[in-house]
Amino acid sequence: MPDSTSRVIGFPISRIDGPLKVTGRAPYAAEHFPADMLHAFVHVATIASGRIERIDLADAANYPGVVKIYTHENRPRAAWWDSAWKDDVALPGHPFRPLQNDRILFDGQPVALVVAESFEAARDAAALIRVSYVEEEPATNILVEERNSYEPKEKRSGIAPPPPPRGDAQGAFEASPFKISAEYVLEGEHHNPMELFASTVIWEEDGSLTIHDKTQGSQNSQGYVCGVFELPKEKVRVFNRYVGGAFGSGLRPKHQLFLSVMAALDLQRSVKLELSRREMFYLTWRPATVQRVSMAADQNGHLSAILHHAVEATSRYEDYQEVVVNWSGLAYKCENVKLTYELASMNVSTPGDMRAPGAATGVFALECAIDELSYKVGIDPLEMRIRNFVHMDQNEDKQFTSKALHGCYRQGSEAFGWDDRNHAPRSMRDGQDLVGYGVSTGIWEAQVTNAAARVRLNADMSLLVSAAASDIGTGTYTILAQIGAEGFGITTDQVIVDIGDSALPTTSVEGGSWTAASSGAAVQSASIAVRATLLKHAQTMENSPLAKASVEQTAIREGRLVLDVNDQVGVSVEDIFAHVGLSFIEEEGKAAPDQATQKTFSSYTHSANFVEVHVDEELGVIRVTRVVVAVAAGRILNPKTARSQILGGVVMGLGMALYEEGMFDHRTGRIMNHNLAEYHVPSHADVQDIEVIFVEEHDDKTSPLGVKGLGEIGIVGMAAAVANAIYHATGNRVRHLPMTIDKVF
Ligand code: MOS
User: Bias category Basic and acidic residues: which stretches (predicted)?
Assistant: First the structure.
């Protein structure tokens, strides 16, 4: 029974790790400085397709301070060169193995690793390496390669192929009075968290490794190192205590981890490898995608048919897959649906998860399409969405655990002032500017994954919460402290949270918006276990007033274990500890997906996004002047960190809508704008008013805490809301992201 008197869960507590971060005292992966450490630097390929003919290392090897240079010709032994070993989160295909052979499959592929006594020596020597290549014609243009697409054969773990068709989508489409059919293009987006990919590998005399890695899961990196190099778990400990953003880029181990461990083991020295900003562009990205949506409705605006086909880029060596089209089968009521998904293999590095992977992409097309159709039918775009509200997940024929989307539409539109909108495009102005209002729906899975946590209650009522969970900037430290504090009637400053260490209780990577629900539930469960132990001890005291109590009947308030029905009856925790002669009580708790619930229910978070744009008619400059996002995500543990998650998602959504674009020179297959000067992410001047509303939603099925997760929903639908607002402002439909000036008029 949670303690209803504490002011912990549900309160806007500032991040407990905030002061460390803003004062520079939170060390990131590259900010560890073991004694006698070597520095590594990667020399990357300058072609996108072909093979290495010859590598000339003479100048580089003679450079002062260089210790060793590794290429595919002299790389040391590692288990995975000759085995079929794959990491836990590997995709169908062959995981990228840097320096494996002479094949070049993408621009920026690592070709050599220079290890030197200083960073400068490693970097300068890497520039002296001369490689001659035999080039082949690269394929990097999704708009061309879409024609050579193929259906993914192997199922990626956790991602099922699209649901089978229902009804007769093509027939219903043809028979309907109102219809649209359009192609939507997303250029690739590149991950640019503040913190670069880095590993500091500390080599110990006994051959064990302590690694500070930029990752979303310390145990995932640990498993990777152990698997690739055939090391026992006890010999490898990975820390990721502070992570400077990741958004999915850190889910899979990156090649800097492999290369730095390889060198450390070979040279028996500590090694650090931090990739450059430029190299970040070669690593992982939201894949370029071409989508076609055909959608039809009757004269009342009820959807009669949806056909959604997507082709996404993948690499030459792995089938990266994400859920792009499924959303179109469950977001609105429709009996005739056909969803298809294919891949196009190109000379790019394997794409990866990027905030709301698949949904950000697929819902963009879906939400533009339904908007286009609403104008065809002649009804308000918000009304169109409300008319097609669905109470069931028709893909899986299941009930939703909860769906407060009506509240999102209502509260969002009120706060935004949607009713002030003139329906006709190009009908609203503000001086020089055309003004447009756009709306979209957002949807994302609410998941629970495997997580464990340990809770230690000390006799002085201070608490230690520990788990191998990660905080990628999302606020994990803070909410775990809140959940721990709530369980013992204390405040968060009495709680120490120890996470980001592979030696702590087993926890999945931080991703999928599942951490609050999963690690949170594990902390709650461990806290209850501690209380149960405390109660058991209290019951051994003479004339214990709690003799007959069950743990569910008890709570801890003001340092006393009390009978919840009457908190006068109880025993002081200090007395219990004294009675049994202990200084602390420690228990573990676990969380896991609830199979029974999943059989009958679907669980999603929802949002309604409202966007106002100003478009300068002469220059085409687009400004997003106002955004209102109303989110239904179950229980909100901390409105402050929760709001920050939505703000981050919205800002990334604005980047997706208007700015972010990985530009290839398709003749060479090379990425041209691999820096933050030419790849624009939203800056302060691009971000104006954003209002976040959390709509009340009670969900007792998704997770033990009633939490649905917030990390990704903020971005879903944002690009569509901007596109729809631009159409409303200008009368022009832009179906190609990012919507840069040249595409608007
Ligand atoms: Mo998220 S894209 O699962 O970090």
Answer: 147-157
Domain 18-22+449-592: assigned CATH number: 3.30.365.10
What is the tens place of the pLDDT at every residue in 357-401?
A: 999 999 999 999 999 999 999 999 999 999 999 999 999 999 999
Assessment of whether the complete model's pTM goes beyond 0.90: yes
Q: What is the pLDDT of residues 21-34, one digit of tens each?
A: 999 999 999 999 99
State the distance from the centre of ligand 1 to the C-alpha of 374, rounded, in angstroms: 32
Q: Is the confidence at residue 121, as pLDDT, over 60?
A: yes
- Is 154 considered catalytic here? no
List the residue whose alpha carbon is closest to atom 4 of ligand 1: 248
Cα(135) to centroid of ligand 1, in Å? 35
Whether the pLDDT of residue 412 is over 70: the answer is: yes
The ipTM value here is: 0.97
Q: Would you state the CATH architecture of domain 38-137+194-246+250-280?
A: Alpha-Beta Complex (3.90)
Q: Which residue reads 């690593």 in tokens? A: 283
Which residues surround ligand 1 with Cβ inside 6 Å? Answer: 216, 247-248, 251, 353-355, 357, 511-512
Atom of ligand 1 nearest to the CA of 511: 3
Per DSSP, which regions of 197-336 are E strands?
A: 198-203, 209-213, 236-239, 271-274, 285-286, 289-297, 303-314
